[in-house]
Specification:
Blueprint: E1 2-5, H1 11-21, E2 26-29, H2 35-38, E3 48-50, E4 57-58, H3 60-70, H4 82-102, H5 104-107, H6 118-143, H7 156-165, H8 179-190, H9 192-201
Parallel strand pairs: 1-2
Antiparallel strand pairs: 1-3, 3-4
Helix pairs in contact: 1-3, 1-7, 1-9, 4-6, 4-7, 6-8, 7-8
């Protein structure tokens, strides 16, 4: 299988998960805006995963769950009761539906205002700080006194949260300001697979 990624994006979470899973895969760096990549994913978004089907798989959370389900021996997902599956799905939904979107106006402020002057764009960026703080605080609570996002063990949620929490490096209040998130991030940075992906994704 082949993972299409761009540096710094949430596609790196899928790369980390593939590495944790021990999957047989390759990666290809792409420009999401290019015509060539839009033939793979017309939405022009990463990640995309080609497993030889009629079209590439898209959407980070769906790909992450696919990796977990196809490599059950690595226990990167959750089985068990309906309540346990719900709790995991709820965590992933938070990362996809609340955490990720909190950063959108920061990275693409022009989408959230009709004004084009830099002062207006900066005002949009500054408006994101409170919402990002809210989702980071919630993530801090999910982690609690451990080093993982869900159920006290490594899952695909760790990879997803780690890659996105790194985006706070561009903000006045970074992940280091949240005690539990900081512990989680430091543990992730010590992970050999994470180190490998971060190093190779910059090449």
């Amino acid at each position: 299988m082949k993972l299409y990624y761009s540096p710094g994006s949430c596609s790196l979470a899928c790369w980390i998960a593939l590495e944790w899973a021990g999957a047989d895969y390759t990666v290809e760096k792409v420009d999401p805006k290019s015509d060539e990549y839009r033939r793979i994913n017309p939405l022009g978004m990463v990640p995309a995963l080609d497993i030889g089907g009629p079209r590439a798989m898209t959407q980070a959370d769906a790909i992450l769950q696919y990796v977990a389900e196809t490599h059950p021996q690595r226990r990167l997902g959750v089985d068990g009761s309906a309540e346990q599956r719900f709790a995991f799905a709820e965590t992933l939904a938070f990362l996809t539906g609340d955490f990720h979107p909190a950063f959108w106006p920061f990275f693409s402020p022009q989408r959230y205002t009709t004004r084009e002057d830099e002062a207006s764009l900066e005002a949009v960026r500054e408006a994101t700080h409170a919402r990002i703080d809210r989702v980071m605080t919630h993530l801090d609570g999910l982690i609690g006194d451990g080093e993982h996002v869900h159920d006290g063990r490594r899952t695909i949620a760790d990879a997803y949260a780690f890659v996105m929490a790194r985006w706070t490096e561009r903000l006045p209040k970074t992940w280091r300001a949240y005690a539990n998130v900081a512990r989680f991030m430091e543990a992730m940075q010590r992970d050999p697979a994470v180190q490998q992906v971060l190093a190779q994704s910059k090449a």
